[in-house]
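tokens incoming
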């Protein structure tokens, strides 16, 4: 068989699956929609305490259905499959995914679409159940308490030692992140983990030479 034979009509017709009926396509897409709605619900449940993007969640459900339709089209004809390869190869997505967990749901949605389109729906169902259990269990695991950021402005840089001693009485862990001195005044940023945060702020504020004191939280990595 030569390369030119690939483009002959009889060769292409041998790879055309005419057994995929409209009823079967409708059934596959409906099953995919059900699982896609399930992914929509799980994503909404997991992100209830963080930033929730409704448009991204809707996109997850739509991607599953679109992927299933593409797989069905690829199975129907080799000509369509070659066209899909050419069309999808020129698509460029420049939207950055900021949350790593969003990537998990994105690949989950694509995997469900592929499995349903390939008529292995049981794999999509088992995958969805196991992945839901995995994500929920890992999300419930306790993590270390994130430290706070203590920002203190001193009228005199010589009061730094006194400030550190005061912090030591309330914190078993502290770390000086930055120290800025200008015109005799000192600005200090200290990472602390204190049990009595309110009392610590009040006593530091009552110290002579303290202009202002702030205690803020941050969403960075937790230091163990």
């Amino acid at each position: 068989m030569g390369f030119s034979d690939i483009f002959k009509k009889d060769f292409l017709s041998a790879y055309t699956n005419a057994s995929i009926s409209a009823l079967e396509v409708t059934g596959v897409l409906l099953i995919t929609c059900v699982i896609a709605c399930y992914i929509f619900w799980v994503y909404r449940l997991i992100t209830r305490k963080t930033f929730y993007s409704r448009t991204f969640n809707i996109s997850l459900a739509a991607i599953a259905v679109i992927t299933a339709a593409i797989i069905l089209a690829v199975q129907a004809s080799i000509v369509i499959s070659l066209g899909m390869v050419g069309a999808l190869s020129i698509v460029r997505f420049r939207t950055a995914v900021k949350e790593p967990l969003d990537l998990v749901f994105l690949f989950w949605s694509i995997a469900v679409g592929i499995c349903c389109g390939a008529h292995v729906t049981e794999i999509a169902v088992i995958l969805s159940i196991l992945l839901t259990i995995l994500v929920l269990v890992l999300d419930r695991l306790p993590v270390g308490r994130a430290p706070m950021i203590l920002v203190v402005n001193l009228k005199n840089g010589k009061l730094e030692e006194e400030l550190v001693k005061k912090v030591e009485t309330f914190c078993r862990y502290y770390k000086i992140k930055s120290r800025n001195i200008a015109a005799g005044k000192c600005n200090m940023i200290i990472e602390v983990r204190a049990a009595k945060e309110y009392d610590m702020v009040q006593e530091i504020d009552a110290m002579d030479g303290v202009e202002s004191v702030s205690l803020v939280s941050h969403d960075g990595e937790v230091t163990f």
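note: The first strand starts at residue 148 and ends at 154.
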